[in-house]
Amino acid sequence: MTEVNKPPRPGGWTRFVTARPRLSLLVALVITALAVLAGSGVADRLGSGGWEDPDAQSTYATKALEREFPDSQPNLLLLVDAGRSSVDDPAVAAQARRLTERLAAEKGVIGVGSYWQSKSPALRAKDGHEALIAAHITGDEKAMGDTLDRIAPHYRGTHGPVQVKVGGQVAVRHEMQTIIKEDLTRAEMIALPVTLVLLVMVFGSAIAALLPLGIGIVAILGTNAVLRGLTEFTDVSVFAMNLTTALGLGLAIDYALFIVRRFREELSTGADPLTAVGTTLRTAGRTVLFSSLTVAVSLAAMLLFPQYFLRSFAYAGIAVVLLAAAAALILLPAALVLLGHRVNSLDLRRLFRRGRAPKASGEEGTAWARMATLVMRRAPLFAVATTAVLIVLGLPFLGVKFGTADDRQLPSTAESHVVQQHIRDGFPGSPGGGLEVLAEGSSTPAQYTAYKDRIADLPGVLRVDGPLVKGQSAYFTVLPKGEAVDDAAQRLVGELRATHAPFATKVTGTAAVLVDSKHAIAERLPWAAAFIAIVTLLLVFLLTGSVLIPIQAVVLNALSLTAMFGAVVWVFQDGHLSGLLGFTSPGSIETTLPVLMFCVAFGLSMDYGVFLLSRIKEEYDRTGDHNEAVRHGLQRTGGLITAAAVILAVVMVAIGTSRVTNTKMLGLGIALAVLMDAMIVRSLLVPAVMRLTGRATWWAPGPLRRFHERFGLSEGEDERPHGDAASGASSHDVPADTNGEGSPHAGSGSREVREPARRK
Fold it and tell me: How far apart are CA 437 and CA 505, in angstroms?
């Protein structure tokens, strides 16, 4: 017999967030305005480096050389082009010397040298028409950028018989920082209107569509203020701004989508707005909380790595996730209480219906229910086929080559890229990209000479310059035969470090930084993976009370990322589609990028996984029917997860329009991962695997089951299933037809009051 329950009184959290909704929104508006002020100018305080390990041998040697031998670390290069003349032409040489002397007199510039002073073959192009002036700009990244802005216009361009272009590490980083800021503004201008249009298509109501967008803007502005505060204490990468925009919009929209959708669903059953908000917070609200925690855990794993490039993404990501969740769980309920049924106002979709009646609530997810039934009927086929496809798509990653970020991150027309490309193509060895060996401790000229000879005998060495001695320190410059960071140069780093010397030696240079960075990541990667896996297993167990579901979630989420990693190598390393996408392939993947992309994409996959699993768990608690719960969960969330994934993919693709290759790779790669997860893994693989595991899906040993009963949370009204849900005692076969007829709750989409499930 059906028992009609009175709607529960709003609980503590609901009372807290809805007691004074107008005051809550006013306070939020004031805080947001303060965040705008606090976060202003944050981009100008962010760095464009952070790929090196601060505790590595190469980092120590670099700082020591900058302190003792600043001219050993040129970060500014002037490419002097004599046109058809030779760089040794008297008029050309005279003009180049004047430029060299003028540069040496600039404030903040030290260690100026040129081909015309040293006659070093490494500073002269093979064809004799170009040569280099090298210098070192002092200060931190901001000071170096300011100095470059001040002096570069006076050197760039035509000077008598020569043309000058500005390059070097400082120019590359400064140009990269400028382009990222410009591209981010353009991405926001693309993403916001497109996202609004998609939200209107999902909700119909313009009012409902504006709510998720507002939550996203609040999260982004709040995170900018957090990043601005962090720059007072630590280095933060400018690349983190892209993640702030992407996750701020994407996750806030995800969370608001699920909360607004559930609120409208409750209103459709006749609930008043306050009761609907209470039910929404007890169901979708709990899911949002769990989801935000799983995403934050994945991003927090990057704090285990020493590179501030990765740590910056953890700072930005954790802040934006928590702010998005807080806004969705505090501000959104207040807005919904005030709006009530007006949340459905301004239904723009009726303009396109041309008199057709809108679908009934129970018909909304019929297609998803039919697909779930079909997948579970052919569960072995779908499980094997989708797994095979994902593995095949990931195979290119087996050929990954790791490298370091350089000028090829920039567009081919960028001035600093042009300079470095000329050096790579036309100069002997690798000027500005050689290896430096720092020697510390007292020594004699004979010992230095003997050590230099041993270095020169190494097979990968083109030439050895030095030593330059100062007190008890000295340094040698070693030019490798190939490129600055190819495999031979990386092997040479190990050989130099293994070469016997009567004094302490440390090796630095681009290849040495790469070797140390790869070592730092490889050393900490198992710990980061274990951290993500263990905490995710715990959180999903607390949500579901099952032992098997958390394991399935971790394995299937990892499997969903294979297409992303395969595409990254096939496109960005091997250069396929480089012309279409407008980038220059360096032939390698920057070492930290796969770590970053894994943490972000895994967190987003768990985000969608939690939304699906929580709805399945809610239905299973209500009915005790495993297959019906899977079908109902996909019916209720399939369309919404797909819509959320498409919206997030749009944001990531907007980020992927960047002219900086790493940002393009991050945006397009994660967009692909999100779509594959929502459309393949959640729609096909998860229901197929859950059908194969059957009643064992919900099993847990007695102690863990009691632990979950005491501490676990799940979406729903704290109901218990027919039979022992934890042991999976009740499980029905898949219905015989695609409509699910024959199941006691087939096609259920409405929210009628049902008899509460009781534990046996």
Answer: 6
